[in-house]
Design a protein that fits this description.
Helix content is 49%, strand content 8%. With 382 residues, it is of the alpha/beta class. The longest helix has 21 residues. The protein starts with 14 loop residues before the first helix and ends in a 6-residue tail after the last helix.
């Protein structure tokens, strides 16, 4: 166990305060009380936030609940039917208030949908804990139990949060999800400062904000799992079909797989590159052919796309490159042992692959850049 973990980041436990806040949590439907809540939050240095949503059968997530904790009161805010410009909008960008989430992930997308802004400055307790020696994917309930000795009920994340009314059990679960965030934030920030790693978290959280605010300009084919098996000619076709599917998913608000599954796109692209795209269309399910046959036929009738230069993410490694990658992974594991953190926090296999191909993404300019030479086995970091 890392010397940075709970035994050295303990602070006074406020179990009664947190429990009282959960029991007195209020469900907020109208704008008037929300304005008062946000005014009260504006006086705080830190607030805790979480979101609940449903996304099983849609492309866009459907916000179901916003949990907001100011250190005394937990507000369970109903986002359904709310105007995008609301009292939360200014709160989310107030530079004096730290917005604390655990495993922020899709929460940023939900907040953009609800109030049009990405929360910042941001503090992710999951990433912060990982920088102090916890596993990278540590759950909120597990972290609270280990740090405070408090057991929280789980297992409700996949509930239908858009159904009304929400049960008392769900509201209690939702309130518990933010009740310890402010306490965690204080503990973790203090420990990061002692370990001289607070700038690590600041950089990573700011990068999350920038990514959420920017357009996803990746090639559409990179959203198709298994596309790397195709040659460059077929990748050109795959990119065309994937771009079409991307338009359809947004227009119809359906998951990508509800339009056409990845393996179907790959099959059509592969056959199109061989000049047999029409035959590939005949092999897909009749229901899909009825729905999309005309559009796919039109795409096939266009001039063949230019072969695509294989993206770094799909580069095929030669034996010597695989050996270099394996060696780099070993160096990252050794570095992680010295730093007492999860190796994945430093660099994933995909990120190391990009480095070996000469790419230098933005994250190498941050705190990880200090360790770049050790990752690459090059004293000059080249």
């Amino acid at each position: 166990m890392s010397h940075l973990r709970p035994e050295t980041i303990v602070c006074p436990i406020r179990q009664e305060t947190a429990r009282a806040a959960v029991e007195s949590a209020e469900f907020i439907e109208s704008d008037a009380p929300l304005e008062g809540i946000c005014t009260r939050c504006a006086e705080q240095a830190v607030v805790g936030l979480d979101t609940e949503f449903v996304r099983e059968r849609t492309f866009w997530p459907r916000p179901g609940l916003i949990q907001l904790y100011d250190g005394e009161q937990i507000s369970l805010i109903d986002p359904i039917g709310r105007d995008r410009q609301n009292a939360l909008t200014d709160l989310m960008t107030n530079p004096s208030i730290i917005k604390t989430f655990h495993s922020v992930g899709e929460d940023l997308e939900i907040m953009q949908l609800v109030c049009g802004e990405v929360p910042q400055p941001l503090f992710d307790t999951q990433i912060a804990a990982a920088m102090l020696g916890f596993p990278l994917q540590y759950r909120y309930e597990t972290l609270v139990e280990e740090c405070f000795g408090v057991t929280l009920a789980g297992g409700q994340a996949r509930s239908d949060w858009c159904r009304r009314p929400l049960s008392g059990q769900l509201l209690h679960y939702a309130a518990s999800d933010v009740a310890w965030l402010i306490e965690l934030q204080g503990m973790l920030q203090e420990a990061l400062a002692r370990a001289k790693r607070l700038h690590w978290l600041t950089e990573d959280c700011q990068r999350l904000v920038e990514q959420a605010e920017s357009e996803d300009d990746r090639l559409p084919l990179l959203r198709v799992k298994g596309g790397g098996q195709l040659n460059n000619d077929a990748l050109g076709w795959l990119n065309r079909f994937a771009a079409w599917r991307e338009q359809e998913t947004r227009k119809r608000d359906l998951p990508r797989s509800f339009i056409l599954k990845d393996d179907q796109l790959i099959q059509i692209a592969e056959e199109a590159a061989r000049g047999a795209g029409d035959a590939a269309l005949n092999s897909i399910h009749p229901k899909d052919r009825r729905r999309h046959g005309e559009a796919l036929s039109a795409l096939l009738a266009e001039a063949a796309p230019a072969p695509i230069e294989r993206p770094l993410e799909l580069q095929r490694l030669e034996p010597e490159q695989r050996s270099r990658l394996k060696a780099a992974q070993g160096r990252v594991r050794s570095l992680a042992e010295k730093l007492e953190i999860d190796p994945a926090l430093i660099a994933s296999k995909r990120e190391l692959t990009r480095l070996l191909f000469g790419d230098r993404p933005g994250w190498t300019q941050g705190w990880r850049g200090e360790f770049l030479p050790a990752m690459l086995g090059d004293s000059k970091g080249r």
